[in-house]
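So, who can interpret the following?
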Amino acid sequence: NIRELDRITGDRFPDFWRVRIESVTLILLDGNSEPIQSSGTSFGQEIQIRIKYPTIFNDTDYNHHEHSFLAQNFDCNSDYITHGPDINDIEWSSPCQVGEEFNQKTYKPSPDGIYSFKIENPETIDMASVQSLVVGFSGTRIRFSNKDNE
């Protein structure tokens, strides 16, 4: 649940009545907080991570009422290759992005739902060195008006 990550880093989501996730990334890190290296830089040698979006997620309206939404299954890959030990040396070969807010196949959920991640090629990765990960996300938001928060 991305909303739970926000509580660790500052609890900013309650400032907004509408938040939609457009993009999700995941980076595997070693004990020195450096990216786990991909097996190469060619097609098929990237670190392949499948991200499954929540099928049930909650949202809040401008009156602070919570609503639940039911969506169909949707997943996409967030694959990357590494060109060095720094996190800035990552090249995304397949970003997990959603273009339209809702259509027949995709949707932009709120952060309040269960996302799942699966490493699709663990046999090509030094999994014993994975100590932590970085979850990144981006999207849109609409702030409650100041009048509503007083």
User: Anything to note?
Assistant: The chain has two helices and eleven strands. Residues 2-9 form the longest helix (8 residues). The helical segments are 2-9, 146-149. The chain has a mean pLDDT of 82.
